[in-house]
Amino acid sequence: MVAAIVAGVVGANAELIVPYGETRLPALDDTLVDIGIGVGIGSLIAMLLGGLLGGIMGSRWHDRLEDRVEDRDVDERSRHAA
C-alpha cells in the first residue's frame, strides 16, 4: 500500500511518460481500424469454417460408430438365433 502511494506521488511529479509520448506505429489511425476490422472478420470466418468442418467430420465419425454398433448387434442376434 505504501509503495503504491509513493509511486503515485513520484510518478505524478516526475513526468516518467514524456520519452514514450511520441512512440507510435507508423500507420494512420484509420488504417489501424481497417486492419482490426479485417482481422475480426477473418477470425469470425475461420471460426465458422472450423465449426462447420468439425461438425461434418464429427457427424461422419459418429455415423461410422453407429454402423459398427448396429452390425455388432446383428452378428450377436444371428449367433443366438442359430
| Low-confidence sequence ranges | none
Number of helices: 2
Number of strands: 0
- State the distance separating the first and last CA atoms: 83 Å
| Largest sheet composition | none
Q: Which secondary-structure class do the elements indicate?
A: mainly alpha
Order of helices and strands: HH
Shape: elongated
How many structurally independent domains? 1
Strand content: under 5%
Q: What is the assembly state of the chains in this entry?
A: single chain
What is the radius of gyration computed over CA atoms, rounded to a whole number of angstroms?
A: 31 Å
Q: Level of helix content?
A: over 70%
On the 0 to 100 scale, the average pLDDT is: 79
Task: Please outline what is shown here.
Helices cover 80% and strands 0% of the residues. It is an all-alpha fold and 82 residues long. The longest helix has 53 residues, at 29-81.
Walk me through what this model shows:
- The termini are far apart.
- This protein has 82 residues and is mostly helical.
- It has one domain.
- It is elongated and about 90 Å long.
- It has 2 helices and no strands.
Topology of helices and strands:
Elements lengths: L1 H13 L14 H53 L1
What descriptors fit this protein?
2 helices, mainly alpha, 82 residues, elongated
